[in-house]
Specification:
The complex is a heterodimer of chains A (647) and B (354).
Chain A lengths: L17 H12 L3 E7 L2 E6 H17 L7 E5 L4 H12 L3 E5 L5 H10 L4 E4 L2 H11 L7 E4 L13 E3 H14 L3 H7 L6 E6 L9 E5 H14 L7 E3 L7 H14 L2 E4 L6 H8 L3 E5 H17 L2 H22 L6 H22 L6 E5 L5 H9 L4 E5 L9 E2 L12 E2 L4 E4 L4 E5 L6 E2 L3 H7 E2 L2 E10 L5 E6 L4 E2 L5 E2 L1 H9 L4 E7 L6 E7 L1 H10 L7 H6 L1 H16 L7 E6 L19 H7 L1 H9 L3 E9 L5 E12 L7
Chain B lengths: L11 H4 L6 H21 L2 H26 L7 H19 L3 H20 L7 H23 L10 E2 L6 E2 L2 E2 L3 H22 L3 H11 L1 H6 L4 H27 L1 E2 L6 H14 L4 H25 L4 H5 L1 H19 L3 H14 L6
Antiparallel strand pairs in B: 1-4, 2-3
Helix pairs in contact in B: 3-7, 3-10, 3-11, 3-12, 4-5, 4-6, 4-10, 5-10, 7-10, 8-10, 11-12, 11-14, 11-15, 12-14, 12-15
Classes of the chains: A alpha/beta (647), B mainly alpha (354).
């Protein structure tokens, strides 16, 4: 079933913890490269031995400055070796790691740090330290702030601040005084101790803290690797926020289990280039990431010269045909296979190389469902893309596609040791050794989500005849029009977003007469299109309201409508004058739409769409990352979408 | 530089290596195999002699490339330093019975020092005036010193002849085109790799800084005078090597081999190949030499009806060269090396344009 050799399997006993496994693996691998970080142009390697030593000193240092077992340690910063050291050291010292999103706003940071009772906060550099100092007064339990990047830190004198290397120095002193202390700390852990506290991104209310144990994490890693084994020589690029369960899943669970090398990019801005340099064997990322990749390809395709475009179209056409055969599980006729080989050599190989997917064995998409058009694209260019489905509460994964059994309208089959059922109400429930312990300090929510060991997901779906899980949508997000017909807005949105001109789409229609859409155009692609068509514009909002741009988007929506049932067709739309942004709370930090908030904020335009108005005035507030607020005023044009036949 | 996905470096030594991918390594092995084994064994005498001319042109143009392409110092007198290299090594062998390699080194060093002497004005003058001083180098060296004085050394008149067997490297007598080819290919490889590496060092970067903007370079702390003289020295050494190599091929030295026209010719080579590119030096030398050889073949059938063409081939040659330069300046001002880069990019970026 898989191409990689299967190593002897590790038994996850109730005694086994992440630190115990880590120490064992680090001693076994010794001088092998565990981590690479791109710095000053090269990928600086860190061996397992050095990784262990860093973690040992930091763990002892945390103990020396007063960390007790089960204390929470909050962490904020980019993906970097020090962040990983801090997390692993926290676990080794018996603490619980709480990751925060790097770009979280001050209130979010304050809420989480306060709610989780963190006594220590590991910040990366000046920016994070500033946030930490700003909330310190309102978080009385927070006692020390640890930082590791010295840039800009010279003038900081706050007694709560302590440098990462200083903590390690204290750790070394403790190690000299009490040799064997670290080993004792690691030994005292047990499998059902809590190791990680995740605050769910919260599309609705305040974030809830999900408690995950060592066994949860280890079992999840093991069960994923049973489906798709990784090798110790594999490379993995860690670039998504460690505050997201998916990244923890790969970097910590699978990373330790399989022993592959983690690679940290130079800066968040250089991720794509760095990813391409490494050429990872496995990627787990959000749907957004793949959508962005397709968008890049589409834009570059539009800008390419005529012969190149022809070659691309031809090869992609062949690829799509072959992908359809593969997904239908029918053998392709030999003529198509020959053409496929030619197309692969001529174009697909190069495409994969540009995207950094040359060595990919498995690419996973999680978080939210990826549209079928994207799926088809990646399979057409020979990337083995699979859907992962799961919640933070079940350590991130319960269902995944198998390499030889991929359907792009499903999310796959349950991983080993996992059961998935559908309740009579159509809700997806699941049970596995990775089901979480409960929400931190929230027994009410825990009781709601966890009944008889089954995790109630709040998602609607069904199992198809082949045993695949079909994820429809968040239950509360499934729309019914006023005539009772139901549709999934997310599905519509992902189809709309496949157009290179559409960056974001927000579909409306719940309890309303018809489906409508609010579109955020892609400024750079539409801008290029406008230049090519001699349309002058000065800003994003002006471009978005240009009648010719509206016609362009109208045509795109018509194309999508043509392949949809009549009830789910988008009848009216408007181009928004700004892009959705997580800083304006329109999106979650994992870039999902926050519908309830959007409904409230864009109340007037939404009303106007359904009133049949032609235009609507709109004033919005824009929040900058430093908390400043500005007003933007705009006059929005609402456009009808006639059925393609009616034109 | 374009690298395929999955090529990454953990150490600076890997990062700075010349050949970083298996594909490049394989390509270079094939290239060396072709240059060192397949071509010399497979080609006939005529092709080998053409290759030797190309090699001589590359060696001659290398120093000009350094001065014009990398240091921004226009020179129209480079044949003078080639002449110094040729004469010093010939005199070392004939008058002092020194072995050829020693003569070659002496010739190179003498040419380098001679070049520094004429580089001195570059501290004060730029542009047209510098061109004048380099032309002065040409006429003072070749038409005055060498013709009037050096040629009289040993009472040989105007023409130094190197009897067969004079040019030996240890017991290995260089007495055939094929052996000359090997001397040439070794020198070309050494000079090219030497230059390529030199350009990556502090010295090379200083030269490039001076070329791009000498005032800014000086403000940045580059000692302009020192690095300009160093450029003249290295360019002279390369010219000296070219001259000392060339006597092994023609077995004679005479001032008429190092005329002003040759100085112009090698400037043309780098204009066609592309200033500021080592590839350009090689492409330019190959292009010019091969075009002229092609021209010869084209003229032979025509000479029956136009006998004047053959008589005046020299003029045809010059005219073709002039035409080539004009056309290049019009249609390919960045030279062949740029075109080569564009072709590589076309396929590297396939199926996109950026």
């Amino acid at each position: 079933m898989s191409r990689a050799a299967r190593p002897p399997e590790l038994e996850v006993t109730p005694e086994l913890t992440i630190p115990k496994l880590f120490v064992r693996k680090a001693q076994e691998y010794g001088q092998r490269v565990a981590i690479r970080e791109k710095e000053f142009g090269i990928w600086r390697p860190i061996t397992w031995a050095a990784y262990l030593e860093n973690v040992r000193l930091f763990a002892l240092g945390l103990t020396a400055i007063g960390l007790q077992p089960e204390d929470k340690v909050a962490m904020i910063g980019d993906n970097r070796p020090e962040g990983l050291f801090a997390e692993m050291a926290t676990l080794c010292a018996g603490g619980v790691a709480v990751w925060l999103f790097q770009d979280a706003l001050l209130e979010e940071v304050q809420y989480i740090v306060d709610h989780c009772d963190a006594r220590f906060l590991v910040a990366e550099g000046q920016e994070e330290v500033d946030k930490a100092l700003a909330i310190k007064a309102r978080c009385p339990k927070l006692s020390r702030i640890i930082w590791d990047d010295p840039k800009g830190m010279r003038g900081y004198q706050d007694p709560a601040l302590i440098r990462f290397s200083e903590v390690q120095r204290l750790g070394r002193e403790l190690a000299d005084r009490e040799p064997g202390r670290f080993e004792a700390l690691v030994e005292q852990g047990r499998g059902d101790d809590v190791c990680l506290l995740f605050y769910t991104s919260g599309t609705t209310a305040k974030p809830k803290g999900a408690l995950l144990t060592h066994t949860n994490m280890l079992k999840m890693g093991q069960n994923l690797l049973r489906v798709d084994p990784c090798q110790g020589t594999d490379d993995f690029v860690s670039f998504l926020p460690l505050a997201w369960i998916g990244e923890q899943m790969m970097s910590i669970s699978c990373g330790l289990m399989a022993g592959f090398t983690l690679n940290f990019p130079e800066e968040p801005e250089t991720v794509l280039a760095n990813l391409r340099e490494i050429g990872p064997h496995t990627i787990f990322s959000s749907a957004r990431f793949y959508e962005q990749m397709v968008r890049t390809v589409q834009v570059k395709y539009l800008d390419a010269s005529q012969p190149k475009r022809k070659a691309y179209e031809l090869a992609l056409g062949i690829g799509h045909r072959l992908a359809d055969f593969k997904l239908a599980k029918r053998p392709a006729p030999w003529i198509w296979r020959v053409l496929g080989l030619v197309a692969d050599q001529a174009v697909h190989r190069k495409l994969r190389d540009h995207l950094g997917l040359s060595h990919i064995r498995n690419a996973y998409s999680g978080g939210s469902a990826l549209g079928p058009d994207y799926f088809r694209f990646f399979h057409a260019i020979g990337v083995n893309l699979k859907q992962i489905y799961g919640q933070t509460e079940i350590a991130g994964i319960s269902v995944v596609h198998r390499s030889d059994d991929i359907k792009f309208d499903t999310v796959g089959k349950p991983i080993p040791e996992t059961e998935v059922r559908i309740t009579p109400e159509g809700e997806i429930v699941s049970r596995s050794p990775s089901t979480f312990k409960g929400y931190y300090k929230d027994p009410m929510e825990t009781a709601k989500a966890l009944r008889d060991g089954w995790l109630y997901s709040g998602d609607t779906g069904f199992l198809d005849p082949d045993g695949h899980l079909v994820f429809f949508d968040r239950t509360k997000d499934v729309f019914s029009l006023s005539d009772g017909s139901r549709f999934s807005p997310m599905f519509l949105e992902s189809r709309l977003k496949f157009s290179p001109y559409v960056k974001d789409a927000w579909v409306l229609g719940h309890l309303r007469p018809f489906a409508a859409a609010v579109i955020c155009i892609d400024g750079s692609v539409v801008g290029k299109w406008a230049e090519d068509n001699h349309i002058a514009y000065t800003s994003y909002s002006e471009l978005s309201q240009d009648p010719r741009v509206c016609t362009l988007i109208q045509a795109e929506i018509q194309r999508v409508n043509a392949r949809l049932p009549a009830a789910a067709r988008v009848r009216r739309f408007l181009n928004l004058h700004k892009e959705f942004d997580a800083d304006d709370e329109e999106l979650t930090r994992t870039r999902k739409l926050r519908r309830a908030f959007l409904e409230e904020r864009y109340h007037d335009p939404v009303q106007a769409i359904y009133n049949g108005a032609e235009r609507v005035g709109m004033g919005t507030t824009v929040t900058y990352e430093d908390g400043r607020v500005a007003q933007v005023k705009a006059d929005l044009r609402i456009v009808e979408v006639p059925d393609a036949g009616e034109r | 530089m374009y690298l395929p996905s999955g090529v990454y470096h953990e150490h600076y030594a890997q990062d700075q290596a010349w050949w970083r991918t298996t594909f490049i390594r394989a390509k270079m092995v094939v290239l060396f195999l072709f240059l060192l084994v397949i071509f010399p064994l497979g080609a006939n005498l005529y092709l080998v002699s053409v290759a030797n001319i190309i090699g001589y042109t590359i060696l001659s143009a290398m120093g000009v490339q350094l001065l014009i392409g990398y240091c921004g110092q226009i020179t129209l007198g480079h044949a003078a330093f080639i002449a110094v290299g040729a004469y010093v090594s010939a005199i070392a062998m004939l008058q002092y019975q020194l072995p050829y390699p020693v003569g070659l080194v002496l010739g190179a060093i003498a040419a380098g020092l001679w070049s520094v002497l004429f580089g001195l004005p570059s501290a004060r003058v730029k542009g047209f005036y510098l061109i004048m001083t380099t032309m002065a180098a040409q006429f003072i060296t070749v038409d005055f010193f060498i013709t009037q004085y050096v040629s009289q050394v040993g009472g040989r008149g105007t023409f130094f002849s190197l009897p067969p067997g004079t040019i030996r490297i240890g017991p290995w007598t260089i007495d055939s085109e094929l052996k000359v080819y090997y001397v040439m290919i070794v020198l070309v490889i050494l000079c090219t790799t030497g230059m390529a590496n030199l350009l990556r060092t502090r010295v090379g970067r200083a030269w490039i800084a001076i070329r791009d903007n000498d005032i800014a370079a000086e403000a940045m702390g580059v000692n302009i005078f020192k690095y300009k003289l160093l450029a003249y020295f290295v360019a002279g050494v390369l010219g000296g090597i070219a001259g000392a190599f060339w006597i092994s091929s023609i077995l004679a030295v005479s001032p008429e081999h190092f005329q002003f026209s040759w100085s112009l010719w090698i400037v043309g080579v780098i204009l066609i190949g592309g200033a500021g590119s080592l590839h350009g030096t090689i492409f330019g030398a190959m292009f010019i030499t091969l075009i002229l050889e092609g021209l010869k073949f084209a003229i032979i059938p025509l000479s029956d009806s136009f006998p004047a063409l053959q008589e005046r081939f020299l003029y045809v040659k010059e005219a073709a060269f002039g035409l080539a330069i004009v056309l290049f300046l019009l249609y390919e001002p960045k030279g062949l090396a740029y075109r080569w880069q564009q072709i590589k990019n076309y396929f590297n970026l396939w199926p996109f344009s950026y």
